[in-house]
Amino acid sequence: MAKIKYQTPSGMHDILSEDYAYYEKVYEIVNDIARFYGFGRIQTPVLEDAALFEKSTGATTDIVEKQMFTLKTKGGDELALRPEFTPGIARAYVQHGMLNMPQPVKLYTYGPLFRYEHPQAGRFRQFHQVDFEVFGEESPAIDAEIIQIFYAILKELKFSHLIIEVNSIGDSQCRPYYKKLLANYLRPRANSLCADCRRRMRQNPLRMLDCKEEKCQRIKAQAPQIIDHLCDSCKAHFKSLLEFLDEADLPYHLDPYLVRGLDYYTKTVFEIFSDRTVQVVDEQGEIVQRSALVGGGRYDNLLKILGGKEIAASGAAAGVERIMAIMKDRGTLAMEEAKPRVFLAQLGDLPKKKSLKILEEFRRAKISVAESLGRDSLRTQLGRADKLGAEYTIILGQKEVLENAVVVRKMETGEQETVKMENLVDELKKRLKR
Ligand code: AMP
How much is the pTM? Predict the structure, then answer.
């Protein structure tokens, strides 16, 4: 049998309690904002049919082609660890007949996702996203609302200098023509493109606009822009979106080459960056990419691709680890250590046995208590109580237990009083009020 390495798999991490506070802070704000904007929480399985992602995310996307963790069950089903949320939520919308509910249906979720990436700064194989999706609404107002929601989440997390990049990538009316135009532009330049882009040029030339290779970036800079080739309906949608963003004072910037790497987007695509965004660094230590905190857009074709009816939809996701990295770097969340008001010191076996019951009484009374159930001396325990900033220490010795009493020590002055065990919580309530 192979030796255990006591090491998480590459690109995956334990979340230790000091970091968990950041996740909780993010989720707390997300829950508040979701409630305000009328989004209901949904939780889909971590595993889905691999075919779901092949069909929706797209068989030629990097996510499906290179990054999906797949497995075969004993029964022969091909499953995949979800690399993104949208397909699973869209599947749930169809499966549970949510199209018969009053539209739009607004859903949000958060949790772990899995992509077989080359692990590097800001890129993990297991990471977390916060995801919002709206089904059954065509209006660009919804695209703007989603942008506003993610902007608000980041603002509440004290991010400043946020940049929203927006673009429209058209729809099945106008995109095919643009794709042809782009392929025609790329063909004579094929020799100057990276190997991936030469392949992309045939399969899906739009993806070339996403390439981070410097030589491809240079070619991209002169490429035709889709914005100049949108059909009337996409043009009107985009114009209206920008008006909504203007009215809402959301600071956006138009990036005519923003396409995002997935097949299902139509019309609006957007990303949000912070000026402190984590940089992705290559093996030589060169910054190769400024990584987005949030990415999303409209996907009016996805439900049809999945075999359902044509249902307009729009959504976005934020990367929790990237948000956290910046929060930590900035030290914004000065982690408040849970400061106990009371410390419970015990001396010996009999007192220790009483401790659990006392702790539970304090918990029910909502008074925070720290304890030390080890074999420490009174001096050590008082030292700990002091360090934690407890206002009172309850000292429970052998003698006190036999007398059904406890000693209450005021830490500031060192004054000590004996109180009856049954009155302990009430006595402390009184003292803590003062
Ligand atoms: P995407 O689903 O690729 O559009 O990504 C949405 C957001 O999730 C990105 O803007 C990142 O913040 C985050 N993200 C994506 N992939 C990873 C990864 N491998 N590790 C950490 N965060 C990621």
Answer: 0.87
